[in-house]
Amino acid sequence: MNTIVQNILAFSAVGLAVAFLIKKFFWKKSKPKKACGNEDCGCH
């Protein structure tokens, strides 16, 4: 029984790590909308 729980936890950790890496490197980020034309215009 202990081995089954350890396997479930280990595979869950690996799955979460892979999902994090996929999200970080392959997910397309949407660019935020800018209220003004310049990033350093002082309106933020």
Automatic annotation (TrEMBL):
The chain crosses the membrane at residues 6-26. Keywords: Membrane, Transmembrane, Transmembrane helix. This is FeoB-associated Cys-rich membrane protein.
